[in-house]
Design a protein that fits this description.
about 90 residues, about 90% helix, elongated
């Protein structure tokens, strides 16, 4: 579907977007007319949201990998059963 170069380009573009978004968010928090403690609270919120999103994406990725692994094991088992059945049918 995508070549390795296209995938790397898309990942780089997304990474750049994240960096720009964090830079703009940091600037807006820095320039906000509120106390430093409020800015720190907002910053911690952004950090925790980022950690939660990373964990969520990793969980979904691991779930997909495990489902794919189970699917491949089931396909191999079914193929082995069919192979044994065909071998037994020829022998009889």
């Amino acid at each position: 579907m995508f070549s390795h170069n296209n995938t790397a380009l898309i990942a780089m573009f997304n990474g750049l977007g994240v960096v720009v978004a964090y830079a703009m968010l940091s600037l807006s928090i820095w320039l906000a007319p509120v106390d430093l403690s409020t800015k720190g609270y907002w910053g911690i919120g952004v950090l925790l949201l980022t950690l939660s999103l990373v964990n969520f994406v990793k969980y979904k990725f691991d779930e997909r990998v495990n489902a794919d692994r189970i699917s491949r094991i089931e396909e191999a088992k079914n193929e082995k059963l069919l192979e044994d059945y065909v071998s037994d049918s020829k022998a009889a």
